[in-house]
Write a structure and sequence with these properties.
The complex is a heterodimer of chains A (about 130) and B (about 210). Chain A is mainly α and about 130 residues long. Helices cover about 70% and strands about 0% of the residues of chain A. The termini of chain B are far apart. The chains are: A mainly alpha (about 130), B mainly alpha (about 210). Chain A: It catalyses: 4 Fe(II)-[cytochrome c] + O2 + 8 H(+)(in) = 4 Fe(III)-[cytochrome c] + 2 H2O + 4 H(+)(out).
Chain lengths: ~130, ~210
Amino acid sequence: MKFAWKLFLGITVFYGALTVVYAMLAHEVVGITALALSTGLSLIIGYYFWFTDRRLGAQPQDRLQAEIHEGAGELGFFSPGSWWPLPVAGSTIVVGLGLILGWWLTMIGVGLLLITVIGFTMEYSRPGHGPH
Amino acid sequence: MTSTLEHSESGTAPANRPNLVAVGTIVWLSSELMFFAALFAMYFTARSVQGPKVWLESTGMLNIPFSTLNTTVLVLSSVTCQFGVFAAERFQLRRTGSALDFRKWGMTEWFALTFLMGAFFVGGQIFEYANLVSEGLSFSTNAYSSVFYLTTGFHGLHVTGGLVAFLILLARTFKARRFGHSQATSAIVVSYYWHFVDIVWIGLFATIYLIK
């Protein structure tokens, strides 16, 4: 993680300096807002990586002599396949169409979205409905 | 199938590598920040194009003491949320003492309190909108009212989304047979989101209610 936090905190410093320079030269708020919050964007990621690096210590990717097998092991839990994203996306379409066609459709869409999001997030929490 | 089931319950990642769920959440939150950057930029553009007169007329209608109270509740809900995370990190789902003894609260109690405080905030926002509309500042009154409702409204939608996330999280931990790493990870990433929404609100509050 060493390279990752150095990269992102370096970008933070760059954007921070750019924000100051831009603010002094341009006297215009939109660019200042965009640059200041870009500083924030890279700061969030950089700080998190720095924090994680400090918590976990040296990772195999930090050492040039590391072997591939040192990075082996469980990466996390990944769904082997799920149909739930499809109805979630469909409900989002209904919400968006409702903004054009009428609020009644948006309300229906929000209801559908809630149901499908609950289905999506609870898929592996239901007893006996583990991944097949 | 048994092995995959154990997989999903035993946790998202071993302790010696970065948690992918948390990294993904952080990257997503940084892109959310840029979404709010667009809203801030819109607010400032409208202000500089319209000139100070429209702003002076409209910002006088804001109820600063009430929104300060609302903001305080939201900021404190971040504190209670963090206590919930501390409970989740020691894998304590429920309280071990009486309901009033908050030192022995588990994640469920802290997150339920956070949920109530977040719901208070959203309710307060709706109350504030209703007052403003009755005083004649509706969505399409002028440029100020449009950007006011857009910025605070999108933030309100984010808080509402956070409330739904808390409910789903509590339902998931309720369903899980065992409170393990994967449940704790969900609690931690929901807290990241909640803190983020809180910080964005501090920025919005400072811009809209204090600096004007």
